[in-house]
Design brief:
Layout: H1 12-18, H2 47-62, H3 71-94, E1 97-104, E2 107-115, H4 117-136, H5 140-143
Antiparallel strand pairs: 1-2
Helix pairs in contact: 2-3, 3-4
């Protein structure tokens, strides 16, 4: 269940680090996915995307926000960073506004100035990633708004493990 409107809030861990003045502002029942030590970059990533993975993964791990639920989010983030670089270079070469040839009945009738589609593509991708992450609670901000009740038996398997028979 994702959020509908409003700001994303701040992760509970960050609130604690900054010092919270009001205890009722903390979500003590925030879900806590399993932490991961290290995950290799997916094999389909490009060299540029792997560079971003190798840069951001240690940062996220040290911040203690890298969990098993965040791996796909990081993969998408690395792809967007690489796309950003590629699109930025394209816009620098072509410009924000480009001229596009216009045709009427198969004949060229001149040129029209339009916004370079590369300018729009990155914004669309970022918004899609934000919606994807928010809807699935893959980032700390959205997890901080969720609440889960602790089970009667802490040793009882949680999540997908509860459905896998031994």
């Amino acid at each position: 269940m994702g959020r509908i409107i409003g700001n994303r809030g701040m992760p509970t861990e960050l609130k604690l680090l900054r010092g919270v003045k009001r205890e009722d502002k903390l979500n003590r029942k925030e879900p806590k996915p399993d932490a991961v030590e290290y995950v290799e970059p997916p094999s389909h990533l490009t060299p540029e995307e792997i560079n971003y993975w190798n840069y951001y993964y240690p940062i996220l791990h040290r911040m203690r926000v890298m969990t098993i639920a965040d791996v796909k989010q990081l993969e998408i983030f690395c792809c967007v960073c690489s796309d950003h670089d590629r699109l930025k270079k394209l816009v620098e070469e072509e410009g924000d506004i480009i001229e596009v040839e216009q045709f009427s009945r198969g004949l060229s009738i001149g040129f029209k100035k339009v916004i370079n589609p590369a300018v729009k593509l990155l914004e669309v991708a970022r918004k899609s990633i934000d919606r994807f992450g928010g809807a699935l609670a893959l980032n700390p901000q959205d997890r901080s708004r969720m609440q889960v009740e602790p089970g009667d038996d802490d040793d009882k398997p949680q999540g997908i493990a509860a459905f896998i028979s031994k």
